[in-house]
Amino acid sequence: MSLRRFDQAKPFVTLGIIVAVWLVLPAVFKSFVRVSFFELEAPVEVATSYARDLQEYWALRMHSNEALVEAGRDLARLNAAYELRIQENTALRGEIERLDALMRLPTFIDYRSEPARVVRRDFSGWWQRLIIRKGQNFRITVGAPVVFTGGVVGRITEVRATTAVVELISSQNVRLAAVIEGDTRPISFQGGLNTSFAPPKGVVEFMPLDIFARPNARKRLVTSGLGGVFPPGLTLGYVTHSELGADGLYQTGVVELDPRLSSLTEVTVLVPLNPD
After folding, report:
1. Domains in the chain: how many in total?
2. Long-range contacts of range 35-44, CB-CB < 8 Å, 24 or more positions apart?
């Protein structure tokens, strides 16, 4: 009977020994094992991403000629609209440069835009991050901001040989200075406590008392440019609710983030041209 009980408990004893050995190992060895594991895992993730793209390509090849002709017409309309937008954007950029020169405003840090494909998304209770298909091979740097058409995605926290980890702004580890659009007073933004399938949210603190946000009167929250990580004016989300804080001097609020954060397939990394 005792031998049978020992056989049943043997896996747990082995697991306990492994955990104990891992706890007493030096931190340098643990870091080396962790980096080695991720570097070995990266080619599998990248290959899976390429296979997914190839699958989408052949799925599109299976469409009929009529569907392709219709898609071509829609694409032509979009191209015409984009060309008009490009012309408008060029004119607006020229006007901004003229006003900046007239008002002698300081220029912001220049960035190099590096588009990257999303390899994997982790939205568990432990992680709020993306893994992209570019890393040291494209000179991605730790701390570089990541954006998309809807605003800020997050920032680079780890760079590997061919991949990089993006921590989303919905993560509680992300905290930055922001402002309400049209206001210059900085407030504190932080990612919220987000579950796996809930819409992404954040929180704001130290919001002035004269700013009111309600679901039917949302306030656009943008980056302030303070800290030198994110350029100013990038959309973070919309403050949908505000209430008096515990100190009675400022307000706290709930920030509704872009729901597309959980389904992004392409992002852009803003790599500083002069990191110093």
Report:
1. 2
2. 35/160, 38/158, 38/160, 39/160, 39/161, 42/160, 42/161, 42/162, 42/163, 43/162
The region that residue 151 occupies, defined by phi over 0 for left and psi between -120 and 50 for alpha, beta otherwise, is left
Q: What is the pLDDT of residues 178-220, one digit of tens each?
A: 999 989 899 999 998 877 777 889 999 999 988 888 888 899 9
Residue 205 in any domain: the answer is: yes
Distance linking the first and last C-alpha atoms of the chain: 69
- Check which CATH number belongs to the domain holding 248 and give it: 2.40.10.350
The residues that bridge with 273 in the sheet, in sequence order, are none
For residue 100, tell me if it sits in a domain: no
pLDDT tens track for 159-173: 998 999 999 999 989
Could you tell me the residue range of the domain that residue 218 belongs to? Answer: 175-262
